[in-house]
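Box 3.1 A note on notation
Throughout this textbook, protein chains are presented in two layers. The first layer is the amino acid sequence; the second is a token string describing backbone geometry. Keep the layers aligned when reading.
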Amino acid sequence: MEQYPDVEIGSNAEVNGLSVADNNGNSVSFGDMADGETATKRLDVKTSSSSLEWSGSGGGSIDYSLKMQERSGSEDLSIDVDGDGTADVSYTAVLVDGETTSAQVGELAVGSGPAQVSLTSGTVDAEVTYTEHTVTRDPVVYVNGNKIEYTGELSPEQTASLSTDTGWIQDGSNNVTVRVGDGTLSSDAPDPSVDLNYSHSAEEQIDTQYISTGWEESYNVSHTFRGDQQNAELRIPFSQEVYNLEYVEQSVNGGSWVSVPSQDWELQNGTRLVVQLDDGDATAGVEAGDTIAIRTAGYKVQAVNGEITVVDPTTPEDDGLDTGFRVDFKSAGFHLEIGGTRLGNQVHYTHTESWENPDESVVVNADGQQDLYLPNPRQVATSA
């Protein structure tokens, strides 16, 4: 039961900004009152209201009277929808007969409830409406009849990765089937569904020519693709760290050799070359029947403050080192860092130089790395 008074006032002089409030903070404003003016306002109060406080400005005074009314209502309403002991919806005002209010709560788990209603006075009718949706539970993927599954429930936006066996993939067409739900949903329930991103990499046999000399290591790799490939790449592992690639070139279907753009290859950690393959037509990637060849050569010595070209490499069957090289460019402090080569632990020197006063020197570091300093060669000079 709700109580509220009709407050009737009259003033005998001008009063400005007149308002009244009870001890519970319920208030009503009358505004400015002229001399002799009367007004009536409704003030909502609770059964615990025990006093009124007036406020305003001016030299006048007021007379007031209260006319108490009662009406049925529900007070301090709260509902625990999921039955966990904590209110999910609350309404602190008085909800009178015929008045309604609504609120939205979060997700309800299967089996939640029963709902509990509490209030300090009155009665209330409560209606809970909900929208049913399904979750992905224990999804199963079949690859050519081979089963891989995720055990548990996938929440909205949650993803999971499943690894398959490469032996499941077969030449030609492959069949991937997804199963969600166990057939126990009611006929009016939403259809179970799940998003699937499926990918696999293909490994192919390739033709490789490999030559490793004292200072240089080179590859010539060729492969004919049996099917269209997107994002195809070639990975070439060098036997030792290389400091510089002399060239990275590609030939398509027996055509001429052209340099691969630098953005399409990467030398990783000095030991692995990764090349993105493309047949050069308007369509990205390579197409069935394309033969792609990649050739490259890497130096296992590092030219510092200059550049060199190996013009007479040491043959693979030669146990020693007798490499001819050309100095293409040099500046102050020019030297060669040697140590990652097959004979990198032996002291190096030059002979048969094309410049006068060779005066080379070697600095051997504590870690075995050695630097071969060549102070006097002219640019475009040769030595062995």
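The CA atoms of residues 23 and 49 lie 6 Å apart. The mean pLDDT is 78.
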